[in-house]
Amino acid sequence: MDVKSILDRVGSTPLVTLQTGVDRAGIRLLGKLEGNNPGGSVKDRPARSMILRAEARGDLRPGMKLIEPTSGNTGIALAMIAAARGYAIELVMPANATAERVKQMRALGATVILTPADAAMEGAIDHAREKVAAGGYLMLDQFGNADNWRAHYESTGPEIWRDTDGTITHFVSSMGTTGTIMGTSRFLKEQRESVQIVGCQPTEGSSIPGIRRWPIEYLPKIYEPERVDRVIDVDQRDAERTSRDLARREGVFVGASSGGAAWAARQVCADLAREGRDGVVVCILCDRGDRYLSSPLFETQD
User: Fold this and answer.
1) Residue 257: active-site member
2) Is 65 a catalytic residue?
């Protein structure tokens, strides 16, 4: 009987064809369903990588307590892996996080600290850093930890290359910690340099959970801009409208950051069509829509 642990079920998520926004026969738009991970998001990959590698180095040992600032998905993933490995964990997040995320973290045994919403993620980061400085905690630091992007170099990139039979021409990903795009870019460019790497960030004034336009002093240390060929700015309304469109027209139920990535991927497909070129465009659909049901995301009628 081949029954594996929850950690062994991270990754190997499927690609699905997305039809809407593709107007040329030689263009394929594919979405990678990261909500199929056991913790429900792409963040399961770096959470497992950061904890297991910290153990292997001896940085994390039995009895130690973890702390991490998070906008939600990484916190859920870390809470899941910490529970499976027997660690206490404290998660710090802005108070405007959806109720589903907070409840899931607490259900997994995590302590959740909510910082003022108007301080955004920067406030959560500052709070966690202050507690680490006071002693008694280990912060994995998803924003500066190379074990974040390594997870995608070792799993996300190879899965996409394998499942597209090496035909991928464009990879599109939202940029938060930037771990997904950094690791996947490394792998895909090693296979074929011409694969185009496209990142998404919010327009000024837009608030899209999971996608950030960072102030320079908070820019993730793992981010290397030369590994991204193009950055597309995504308006909050377009990201949210695309999330609803994916649910209603494709049966693909995902959150707003996924909607942002899919909107940007559609722009890439439109550019290819205008230029008369074929392509295989893959975007990351990073979590499930059920994490947003307490928000207005799916209540608006377009």
Assistant:
1) yes
2) no
pTM of the predicted protein model? 0.94
| Catalytically annotated residue among 155, 185, 257, 258 | 257
The verdict on domain 43-139 having CATH code 3.40.50.1100 is yes
In CATH, the architecture of 6-38+156-292 is 3-Layer(aba) Sandwich (3.40)
Annotated binding site for pyridoxal 5'-phosphate: 73, 176-180, 257
Distances (CA, A) of 228 to 99, 173, 186, 233: 34, 10, 10, 14
Residues 108-133 pLDDT 10s: 999 999 999 998 888 999 999 999 99
**Is the distance from CB of 288 to CB of 254 less than 8 angstroms?**
yes
Residue ranges of the chain assigned to CATH 3.40.50.1100: 6-38+156-292, 43-139
> In which residue ranges of the chain is pLDDT below 70?
1, 3
Over residues 247-263, the pLDDT tens digits come to: 999 999 999 999 999 99
